[in-house]
């Protein structure tokens, strides 16, 4: 009997070497894939200069730059994400969740609109400034080392706000921003080695800089007080680390566009190894390891994409779509492990009980404001009318010009009014059922699911009717809602878990919508982009009918069961003690909110923040009883969207801005204020 030799422990060098070998292997496979048949032997001849001109041109001008770009982008984002997570002690910190990508994208869009043609390094500098500003805002709002979910919420809200600005610029200046939307989906495809050669030194500087401060980053992991006791400048170390991480993210964005969630996934994938192999937890090793894992994620996504759909079809599919799906799954998985962000309901929401006089006065004032807004929306636009024109139109005595204007304008006003009311009612129901004041159909991915279903129909069946679009939107919203609410219900609809799952689902639907738009013909793409901006352009009376039916049914359901909604919003035990069938009641309200959201999205496109702002403002005005909250929230939602549509049609007429873009601009500061208020 012989004794078995003791197993040798895995060393740090072995892990890093294995990662480098895996990256090299994926790079070799990636170089051999594409629309033209170029095998490994031809690649080797091209690299060594012995290939014929055709093969050498394909490999050197396209394949090698793509593989090298994948390595650079993955390494940059992986190292950036690892550094951000280490200094914030937050496993959800990443360039995506800090809105660095969104900030860089809007900065580059602004430069593009001005007509300036900057060299690549200058564009990287612009992206760096935009990303740094966005990261600074998110970190200042969320607080380092506080709730993990708060950071994601702040980053998502800021990304939505600046994203709406970017979408507005793309729609208003299509010639100057041509190709920018496709670039924003993230692709490592390159035209020669020029871009890679210019960005490689920037990535190297960022990584080396973080390695230099690696020991200080390790000390920060002990806590701020301990770090100060050991002589480490906490604030200075964090500022330097954030700047270097944003520099890496900006270089990646400049080179390949926003590649979603690599900075989140790479450190998460590397983290199990750091617990098994001694020495990997040190920043000087953990950062390169995360970079290698990031390169594996990007190259692996590109290889998988071409293996599944083929080289020809993969040309039109951005690499960022695949990585965003991976990141969405990771975000949902992390939702079950993230520590709670705490209750964000404010004391004023709990205790304030205004009198009946205040409630009646509030309803009367809001109704008057709504009437005034509707009248202004009907009269104003590219052609201004008088009340007498409207009266003549209603009685059938108007001239052809006035008839044409009002025949096209009135359905738009009704669509905006009804969609705003439906979204507000849906948000009220969702916030009550989940007992989460940050929940709303847009943040939870339900609006994204409805948008995905509608865009799928619009891009495949351009002549689809109103009920077809509404049905497709309802199907998409239903699928996403079932996933989000089903997973969140396992934890009793805990606030942070529900929000993280919803954000993950929203990211997945956004990636799919971008994929559909990128693959469809330009006419359908422009149509879908305009519709996604929340535009009421081209709406007719038949388009309004589905949302009218849904809103009427929703008001009946919520109106008859408003006391049940009050009980459901309290806690888990009180409704059961009073004999309320909690699962069935919760399902009823959730289904109602999904139907309301889907028909609203089908009528006017995706409009964010209405389901968040209107219920919050209603509770602040009239208290928490849903018999009062519902009518006030519905009126507020109708006013908000109708006013946004009016401003979008008149401010820069004859050009137009979608109502959804304006509501996002309005809703983002409110959401930021809400997060800041809940933090205090």
Question: What do these coordinates show?
Answer:
The chain is an all-alpha fold. It is 75% helix and 0% strand. Helix 4 (100-114) crosses helix 11, helix 5 packs across helix 6 and helix 5 crosses helix 11. The N and C termini lie far apart (69 Å). Mean pLDDT is 80; it is low at 1-8 and 341-349.
SSE arrangement:
Elements: H1 12-32, H2 40-47, H3 53-88, H4 100-114, H5 120-142, H6 148-172, H7 180-184, H8 194-212, H9 214-220, H10 224-229, H11 234-256, H12 262-276, H13 283-309, H14 311-314, H15 319-335, H16 347-351, H17 356-379, H18 387-394, H19 400-434, H20 446-460, H21 466-489, H22 495-519, H23 522-532, H24 541-560, H25 562-568, H26 573-577, H27 582-604, H28 610-622, H29 626-650, H30 659-679
The overall strand count is 0
CATH topology value of the largest domain: ABC transporter involved in vitamin B12 uptake, BtuC
Report the β-strand fraction as a percent range.
Answer: under 5%
pLDDT below 50 for ≥5 consecutive residues: which ranges?
A: 1-8, 341-349
Radius of gyration: 27 Å
The first-to-last residue Cα distance is 69 Å
- What is the 3D shape? globular
Q: Structural class of the helix and strand makeup?
A: mainly alpha
Briefly summarize what is shown.
The chain is mostly helical and 680 residues long.
